[in-house]
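[Meeting: bench + compute handoff]

Bench side (C.D.) handed over the final construct sequence. Compute side (W.E.) agreed to return the predicted structure before the next meeting so the bench team could plan truncations. Sequence as handed over:
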Amino acid sequence: MPKVESSDIMKKKDSQSSNFQFRESEDDYEDYESSGESDAGETESSGHEDLSNTESDDGLEDEDGSEPSEAAEESDSSEDEVAPRNTVGDIPLWFYRDEKHIGYDIAGKKIKKKERESKLDSFLANVDDSRNWAKLYDELEDEEIELTKEEIRHVHRLIQGKAPHGEFDPYAPYVDWFKWDDAKHPLSNAPEPKRRFIPSKWEAKMVLRYIAAIRAGLLKPDEPKEEPNFYLLWGNESTSAERHLSYIPAPKPKLPGHEESYNPSPEFIPTQEEINSYQLMDEEDRPKFIPKSISSLRAIPAYENAVKDSFERCLDLYLCPRVRKKRLNIDPESLKPKLPSRRDLRPYPVTCYLEYRGHKGAVMSISVEASGQWIASGSTDGTIRIWEVETGRCLKVWEFGETVRSVSWNPLPELPILAVSVEQDVFLINTGLGNEEVQKKVKELLSLERPTSQVESGDLPSILSWLQDNKYGGLKLRHFKTVASVEWHRKGDYFSTVMPAGESRAILIHRLSDKLTQRLPFKLRGLPVTSVFHPTRSIFFASTKKNVRVYNLQQQKLIKTLETGLREISSIAVHPAGDNIIVGSKEGKLCWFDMDLSSKPFRILKCHPKDINNVAFHRSYPLFASCSDDCTAYVFHGTVYSDLNQNPLIVPLEILRGHTGSNGRGVLDCKFHPRQPWLFTAGADSHIKLYCH
């Protein structure tokens, strides 16, 4: 049998490319040796046969350089006995992860993968097999190999840092190859070379090269290591105080006095009455040590509070300040931002001047006419009322029988048209205000020549239809879902409707002059809440529950997405200049966005403890307001500067109260007067209030 060399084992390990671990304890090795005499003989013979096969396959030679044995050649000649060798080379094995084979043999045939056992079967086999620890898995050949006793001995010796063969003597005696006894001449009688007596020019060139590199900064010499500046924190006071300006001496323990003496004077020893009185005192006022008289030093007992006193002393040292810090005397008022006085920011609404009563249910929405003379309101009692602002007189009432969710006046004074959303219908009502010419123009605009759904609306006849409404004297737009809000364009010809349950067709834009409707050509990516037109440009704001998307209607592209970070958006309003937006949420937070600055909120105001129902900007005054279910309305001052380097000035001004809650709802809507610094609020208590300066 050929002798197994350590190099053979290492080559075998490299060719198998396997990761395995051995038990390094001698107990496992002894258990393996004592597993059975008969089995051990078979294992040894089979292991040597495997080694001989491996050596013959890899082309290894014996120690003396002779060819492998005939038995190995005979075993190699039979292709049935020897498994096919995988000849994939350096290709990673994970290339064949999804294939049914693991590579190719020397003849180019595929080597199929073996069926893998389940984890349960593999675990049971490992439990039953006492020699499982001596097995390893060859990923390249997809087979399991069991090491022989001789190979395990070699591996154990390699792990211990020894030579693989036991018969190798690392401390063999030194063999001197030369005989020094009676030697008359040295080994070499050559003369000393000249290079040993003259400086080396190559070393001089290297020195010059190092000097140039150091001057150019490419090579930096090692700086001397600085010794750590350690010092004893509670060391000698004189030395520490000289080196450190902020040195603080350690707290000194109280020195013992006459009371701590083992034989104090009689006047220091308390009587029994005094000791009893100590028990009635507070623990802080009670003396911590009671003197006692002891006859001799040998009779002194152990101090019972020794551990406690040592612990308290350690706490004194541990909790003592190490550095002296200067206390800064700062007035808290100076840390507040400097805001202008509220007197300088007048006028703004302060007190309730007028109440509009007449509704029997919660007022859901209000809208002020462009001239500021009239105000319209819609309620859950199914009615719409038009009020005169200055007197509070109710001019007209329309009954719809269902909840009115939104009302909105046309922004043009010459078109007194009111848009009303009632469930799935949007009514365009002629309010009857204005002279005869205005009424004639309004009637022509609200007349429909084809009172059917066959309008030029693209693919929208199934979801919307324009109808003539003779009952209220106007038009009716029948939608396929409930309409939550209606908003007009600044020119008064376009208006948008929002259906929160409409999915991809939730926001529609209508043109009154041509009686046309088109769907918003963008994907909202969320449930819509409300929408609003830009006051000066062809930009459209669509609000979902999480963010506000800004679209350019002419170019039909998305300009920006405003990330609010709020739980759910309830309303939005655009500044009259168009560069700033306020967003109200159902968690009581109000976000101010500067479109030129960032897509993140410039300022987040946590003002209301409950849901914010609506927010609004004033058209001409630097005011904005928010209303909430907490039955209050907050009025803020918001000045936007033309200088882009100056941030907007936001100052809270007033909290308007007066409404009462009903069914958990408070103030449902708020609107500013178009010309005066007045604020209208609509509450769940069926009242509308006017707050003036």
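W.E. noted at the follow-up: The longest strand covers residues 649-657. C.D. will use this when planning the next construct.
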